[in-house]
Amino acid sequence: MKLTASPRRLARQVLAGEIWPALADRHAYRVDPDGRPFVLPGMGAVTLGVHCGDPATGHASDHLEPGASIRNRDSGANMALQYLTCVGNRVQVAAGPAAGASGHVIGQHAYVLADFPEPVLAQLAPGDPVTVFAVGQGLALADHPQIVVKNCDPDLLAALPGGTAADGRLEVHVAARVPAEAIGAGAGMVSEYANTDLMGAYLGLSPDLSLGLEGLRIGDLVCLQDSDHRYGRGYRNGYLTIGVISTGQCMVFGHGPGPSTLMSGPADAFRIIDDADANLATWLHPWPGEQ
Amino acid sequence: MTTVNLLGIAEHARLGESPYRVDRDGAPYVPAGDGGIVLDFQLGDSVFSLHADHAAPGACLVHPDPAARHALTTFACIGNPAQVRTGPAAGAQGVVLGKRGEEGRVVVALQSEQLALLRPGDELLVRSSGQGWRPPRLDSEIAVGNIDPATFAALPADLANGGAAAIAVRAAVPSKLAGNGIGRPAVSWDLDLQLTEPPDGGQLLLGDLVAVTDLDARYNMGYRRGFVTIGIVVHGASPLPGHGPGITPILSGPSSVITADVTSEGRAGLTLEALQLQ
Fold first, then answer.
1. Confidence of residue A291 (pLDDT cuts 50, 70, 90)
2. In this complex, do B183 and A186 lie within 8 Å of one another by their Cβ atoms?
3. In what order do the strands lie in the sheet with B157-158?
4. Adjacent-strand bridge partners of A114
């Protein structure tokens, strides 16, 4: 992203987490939009075979979390990990068979979500410790004071296409535009943690549920219309939020593929460019050490 | 229908180490009125009349065990009797007005003199009944929940038309204004409406019936084109983004069998008079 003024210097902090197990309770079932019970994997542990650029929907899954799902055992340390970790931050496996391997953060959910090359993921297990090199919170754009940036690694920001346009607005490329009707669970929560589930992406279910979002991919940059995420997550006419799809298929009603927040501000402070390549895979791949 | 005596404890307001929350414009504020016992705020008052955060008209009931608290919240229905068992207000009869989500709270109204005697920690017995009940002749596509049958009978709902429901409401709100509560089970959560002023220049009062269009609240609450959900306004406005006055859902189904009438004169929802709390 081409900016005329450099973002201010940011603190870089070393944080610790571990891969968290998948969790269930003894009642097992949840309920889909039509009232049917289901049991499906997706949250927690290490989810194989889904990476940035792959379809977010169409999986037999609920709250699909690609790659490794990471928390810290201490509640206060965990909130620091969740709030301070940013999309694009480097993650390193600290012990176990994959020790030393690097991946990157693709977003937040109830966990920090880290994607690794498939051969690394295949070696990871719940309990493996990881180190997150957290940087990005506090990032501000001097030439765009109305836009709040959050959860965004400065190297990712630099790699994004667009930037300050001739008319002074911030040009941002997105793969999809999302109507306000799609905003599901996550409304009303803080925007430095977890993500905003998008309804209307229930591939294969009835047409009256659809908002045309079945084609979303993991890693897509999306534009949430009439959403203000500067100080939380709420509806505001004439505001926009830019996010990155970090979780996929849901079957729990009112939930769906979820963007982690990257930027938010008045719509007229942005110039939105529709770009099918606006996906984390474009800027974060190839993997470290791969070409 | 099954009736279960549940124990609710009058909640003490709770805050974290910081007194501040951040409002939708980025300003810090102190969230007075969020939970606990709130005086001088009752059915028929505007949801915008207090400078408060999610203030509910009366006492919020909780339980120290999280699972018991979820059961209390899920099984209590609007109109259920709630009697104070301990403290200076012992014996006072209240009525369940609705519920709030997340950890779960049941909102109970008492006559104002008796509410003023209530102290956080006092016990109330909630005589819960209503979940699982359906009005006779109600269209099978309509889900009903969170309401005591006797209270349902007192609402301005007409089931005469072959099981379809026609109900007089204060306002109809589009689903894009549904905030916190979306994606959560309608039997255990309220749904915040992201309103900072009354819809359509009218008014919005505690106890009002409100319709939300394109919202399916038969199980979890979520977007479905052509559905409508009817709820009762149970708490006041909030400065938080994504929050606002909250409704407890009572009816949900296709708009072909639920008619929300915003023009009728007889659109009073839950009132102190109907609940005999005046």
1. very low
2. yes
3. B157-158, B165-168, B258-261
4. A68, A105
Query: Chain B within 8 Å of A252 (Cβ-Cβ)?
Result: yes
Domains of chain B by residue range: 4-128, 143-261
pLDDT of residue B264 exceeding 90, the answer is no
CA angle A64, A29, B146 (to 5 degrees): 110
Q: Contacts of residue A228 in chain B, CB cutoff 8 Å? A: 24, 241
Task: Give this prediction's pTM.
Answer: 0.94
How far is CA A258 from each of CA A19, A183, A217, A237, rounded to the nearest angstrom? 20, 9, 10, 21
Supply the CATH classification number for the domain B143-261.
2.102.30.10
* Contact in structure between B46 and B203 (CB atoms under 8 Å): yes
pLDDT above 90 (res B117): yes
The residue of chain A nearest to residue B24, with distances taken between CA atoms, is A231
Q: Can you read off the two tokens belonging to residue A80?
A: 């620091």
The verdict on A145 touching B (C-beta cutoff 8 Å) is: no
For residue B89, give every residue at least 6 positions away whose Cβ sits within 8 Å of its Cβ, in sequence order, or none: B110, B114, B115, B117, B118, B119, B122
| Cα of A241 to nearest chain B Cα, Å | 14
pLDDT value at residue A183 = 98
Domains B4-128 and B143-261 share a fold: no
Average model confidence (pLDDT) for chain A? 95
Q: What is the mean pLDDT of residues A171-183?
A: 98
Candidate from A186, A228, A235 with C-beta closest to B177: A235
Helix (H) or strand (E) holding B19: none
- Fold adopted by B4-128: Thrombin, subunit H (2.40.10)
Query: What's the pLDDT at B15?
Result: 94
Nearest to A228 by CA among A155, A154, A150: A150
Which ipTM did the prediction report?
0.91
- Mutation test of the interface with chain B: which of A25, A231, A239, choosing the one with the most B Cβ atoms within 10 A? A231
Q: Which residues of A touch B175 (CB under 8 A)?
A: 181
Q: Apex CA B188: angle with CA A26 and CA B25, to 5°?
A: 120
Nearest to A287 by CA among A156, A117, A132, A122: A117
Q: Is A76 left (phi over 0), alpha (psi -120 to 50) or beta?
A: alpha
For residue A107, which of A248, A288, A271, A276 has the smallest C-alpha distance?
Answer: A248
The reply to whether residue B179 touches residue A234, judged by beta carbons under 8 angstroms, is: yes
- Say if residue A286's pLDDT is above 70: no
User: Is B194 close to A235, i.e. CB distance below 8 A?
Assistant: yes
Query: Is the separation of the CB atoms in B113 and B247 below 8 Å?
Result: no
> Domains of chain A (ranges plus CATH)?
13-22+31-134 (2.40.10.170), 148-284 (2.102.30.10)
Please, what's the b/e burial string for A264-279 (b: 16 or more CB within 10 A of its CB; e: otherwise)?
bbeeebbbbeeeeebb
Asked if B226 and A208 come within 8 Å (Cβ–Cβ), the reply is yes
B182 inside 8 A of chain A by CB: yes
